[in-house]
Amino acid sequence: MRRLFMSQSAPVAFVVMLTARFAVAAPPPKTVPVAAPAPPATPATPATPATPATPATGQLLAPPTASLATPLTYVPPVEPKLPALTMDEAVSIALQRNRDVIAAKLDIEAAELDRVAAGVYWNPTLSYSIQNLVIGRGGYANTPEHPGFFSEPEHTVGVSEVIDVWAKRSGRIRAADEAIRYRRYEVEDAIREIVYDVRSAFADVVREQSERDLSLETRDRYAETVRLSRARFSAGEISDAELRKIELEGLKYENDVIDAGLEFELAREKLAALIGIGTDLPYSAAFPLPRDFVVSIPALTSDAFQRRPDLLATRAAARVAEATLGSARREAYPDISLGVSYSHSAFQVSGDNPNTLGFSVSTALPFFDRNQAGIGRAELDRRRAE
């Protein structure tokens, strides 16, 4: 609301000033000669001018009657005393509250969980079967003609496990490790951008504050020039047009004060939003700024190519895509399972051994599913990373 009043008050002040300066005075009445002058009338007692109310801050002040000797003046608002905030403190608050940094750190945790999933071994498979359940009449000598349903069973218990002959687990682990590195570089890059934005916004606040103070000082200095010019006009040293030109120039400095105040408030709001505390900055920028230091441009450029997180993240993304593609291709190979089983037979009259062991090998036949979709997506990701 204060900004809207400021931005609308400047042109109003300018119009009022022009109206006061260029108002045409009414011509004096012509005196008609008479034979004998009338006795002078007793002059009326002039009314006491009303005392102007005390103005509020952040307003354009005008006297009760505008004239050449009374210009409009902008009174800046009185700022409350705020605690000082340094650039390093602003960066520290931003890193704790900024949502982009928090989201990037959560992505690291997600990538670490993917690494856990990639390193898990296959679960063994436990199987149990029962055979030789009699249906109908018996078919062997020395056996009852009508044996019971469960009188001659064969029980088999087995365990099987997938053998990673295609190194699928190691391929998934490699892709997950590369993904973790990539996410860490993304976090570092997010932190780099936040630090840069906060420092830039902090410098903007300091600069706008300096420009506002300078505009106030310039306005006050030029007010002295206007005062001296009015004294010269009263002494007849300069013309009315020259005085008007000097006073109109003073309105430009009043507008500069208003504009500088608006820019300063906008810079404060931008810094408050970056550090994650809303739009009202409850701090004042603390001087001095960090000192400048001399660096070598070629050395700085070389160091940036080697250490900038965004460049490292780009390279890591290419490695992630390559590792993911390799893992997807391995997933197309069928899994091979080895098993061992134990059997116990109650039908020994037929010559069966009561207890036996068995081994098994099983695999899927890749006639239809050869992980075509996974390989295609991995290839697209690699093309994007390139």
Name some characteristics of this structure.
single chain, 386 residues, alpha+beta, 4-stranded antiparallel sheet, two-stranded antiparallel sheet, 8 helices, 8 strands, 52% helix, 12% strand, disordered N terminus
How would you explain this protein's 3D organization?
This protein has 386 residues and is of the alpha+beta class. The protein is 52% helix and 12% strand. The chain has a four-stranded antiparallel β-sheet, with no helix packed on it. It starts with a helix and ends with a helix.
Topology:
Elements: H1 2-22, E1 59-61, E2 73-75, E3 84-85, H2 87-97, H3 99-118, E4 125-131, E5 154-163, H4 168-234, H5 240-274, E6 284-285, H6 297-307, H7 309-331, E7 336-345, E8 355-363, H8 372-385
Parallel strand pairs: 3-6
Antiparallel strand pairs: 1-2, 4-5, 5-7, 7-8
Helix pairs in contact: 1-5, 2-4, 3-4, 4-5, 4-7, 7-8
